[in-house]
Amino acid sequence: MDLSKRIDRAMTRAIAQAQGTDAPAGSVPGRLAAALNYAVTPGGARIRPTICLSVALACGDDRPALSDSAAIALELIHCASLVHDDLPAFDDADFRRGKPTVHLAFSEPLAVLTGDSLIIAAFDLLARTEAADALRALQLVRLLAHHTGMPHGICAGQGWESEPKVDLRAYHRSKTAALFVAATQMGALAAGHEPEAWGELGGRIGEAFQVADDLRDALYDEGTLGKPAGQDAIHARPSAVDELGVQGAIRRLQDILGGAIASIPSCPGEGQLAQLVRVYAERMTPVAPVRV
């Protein structure tokens, strides 16, 4: 099955479960249930679950149902973080993926609850695994928690924005790279491989993605991004462009990507995984400034 279709099907099942579609009519809050689906669709590139499943496949993917749960749990956490990031208390964004953000479409209280519910759904999904997969599932829960919370997960990354002095690399490592490290490590673990060796690849992809995001924020317009542009400058957030300038940030991006493929651990699907990284490298690199 095409990975995008595999991810979409698994996400549909997970959201239906979180919405309580098997519950009696009128027994669940309908607007919150609708907001859960709104927050995860359209899915965008689904980069993190694609990387997770690609690593699982490269490692043999001996338990595909568990790999699916790992990939979707990761994406649910990512979507929850976007819902919360867009709130007035943080970025106060009006658009995400080309449509109104959840707090504008459903209200701010429901947006908070949507993000919270997606986080709970992620861990619930991993907890519902088959008994034969219980040990791997528990390890997946611990990995996901590590890369989501404090002191080094995406919550820590958001927390850096409230510090008077910011360590840019630590900020990027937590805010963006954490879930990419989770993607590579959880994919390997779901397929029965040791996750530690996969951390460097995830870290490199994540750091590259953040630098590329900084460049897009500085160079592109809202129509191209599908979300507000120039947010780093507006909110005085640390960024690679602010620290290094545009050309310096592009050079850093190229340096990071140059080492990513070399960091792929030996595995049966190493060649195909290297090609996937090359494709993402091409997509991530901004081709030309388009903001007017």
Characterise the protein shown here:
- It is a single chain.
- By secondary structure, the protein is an all-alpha fold.
- It has a single domain (3-284), classed as Farnesyl Diphosphate Synthase (Orthogonal Bundle).
- 67% of the residues lie in helices and 1% in strands.
- It has helices at residues 3-19, 30-40, 47-58, 64-85, 102-106, 108-127, 134-148, 154-160, 168-190, 199-219, 222-225, 231-234, 240-260, 270-284; strands spanning 95-96, 99-100.
- It has a two-stranded antiparallel ribbon with strand order 1-2.
- A hairpin with a 2-residue loop joins strand 1 and strand 2 (99-100).
- The termini are far apart.
Strand order of the largest sheet: 1-2
CATH superfamily membership: Farnesyl Diphosphate Synthase
The Rg value, from CA coordinates, equals 19 Å
Given the structure, what is the number of helices?
14
Per CATH, the architecture is Orthogonal Bundle
Order of H and E elements: HHHHEEHHHHHHHHHH
Mean pLDDT: 91
What number of domains?
1
CATH class bucket: Mainly Alpha
Structural class, judged by helices and strands?
mainly alpha
Uncertain segments are none
Compute the number of strand runs.
2
Largest sheet: 2 strands, antiparallel
Helicity, in percent? 55-70%
How much of the sequence lies in strands comes to under 5%
Morphology call: globular
Under CATH, the topology can be stated as Farnesyl Diphosphate Synthase
Instruction: Tell me the distance between the termini.
Output: 42 Å
